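Worked example 4.2. Below are the chains of a multi-component assembly; read each line carefully before continuing.
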Amino acid sequence: AQKITQTQPGMFVQEKEAVTLDCTYDTSDPSYGLFWYKQPSSGEMIFLIYQGSYDQQNATEGRYSLNFQKARKSANLVISASQLGDSAMYFCAMREGQNFNKFYFGSGTKLNVKP
Amino acid sequence: EAGVVQSPRYKIIEKKQPVAFWCNPISGHNTLYWYLQNLGQGPELLIRYENEEAVDDSQLPKDRFSAERLKGVDSTLKIQPAELGDSAVYLCASKKAVEDTEAFFGQGTRLTVV
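Applying the procedure described above to all two chains together yields the following structure tokens:
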């Protein structure tokens, strides 16, 4: 089974609108962490936001928020007030295992922000 | 503070030739990762180092791939001989410690095998 599933290969959003990028995960570990990374065309992976499995509140970082639904095993990324510079690939990732030594990425979602 | 530095950014080689990639992590970062990213896919872990020790190399194809981090600082990933299917981006990332949340990535080396 896939550890991380991102079902949206590509998404379009109008500038200044909000967009939700979907992510579901699969783990039997009680302790795990969920991440979102942005990968612009330059190639580097830029850390956006982190949610621990025991965190009670949804993580927020500026215009990014993580909609964590533990029972559904989903960790969707919400970007509010989209900007043209948000156009990039977005990857959901999970770490699990002893000492968090296992790290898995999804296949990514290509976000295009339209002016 | 300098980020994770990788070189070269791009490399084109003929199949069956050897190739090496270099990574210099952020100063003080003990954990170093090498990832393989095929086109249109997410990164896949090849090897993880804690200081100079390779603590997870289960995904590294050891018949042709090797890696080293002799002094626990910079690292080299080698492929010998390269195959057409090795064409991909090779990403390096580092963290201060394995339990830290955020890993910092370099810009990657894009390898094309012809």
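Take a moment to check your reading of the output against the notes. Chain B touches chain A through 25 residues (CB under 8 Å). The mean pLDDT of chain B is 93.
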